[in-house]
What we know:
Structural class: alpha+beta
Radius of gyration: 17 Å
Helix content: 25-40%
Mean pLDDT: 92
Number of helices: 3
Low-confidence stretches: none
Amino acid sequence: MAMVAAGVANDGEVMEPYIVDEVRSPDFDTLDKADPHPIDNQPAMSEGDAKELQGMLVDTANEGTATSGQISGVDVAAKTGTAQRGEGEAPYSWFVAFAPADDPQVAVAVMADPPLDWGGDVTGNGIAGPIANSVMRAVLDQ
């Protein structure tokens, strides 16, 4: 789901994931560096559709169901989700986001599995959102 958020952030282009950005020697010389490139020559969605969705996701973070993703001074694009499970079980809590919305540096997806006796807000905004917010702040150094 982080790749989905990143694809929307990249105007519809989904990039090949990699784990290590750069390998350095003990003297800090660069020995190898990742070469970011799209997974496919075909975008997952048109740039126009991606821009429209970006605006909706910013609105969702600013005044909708994803307000726990807000970062002061940074436009965040986010979407929550709550996935039901079996009868008598607490739902899964989802949150996907990217920031800054106009120059994305981080995309994140959080899926939380809260205990049945969770005393708080068992929603994407109540459980997974604050976790996503902490990750985005750490990456953006906010």
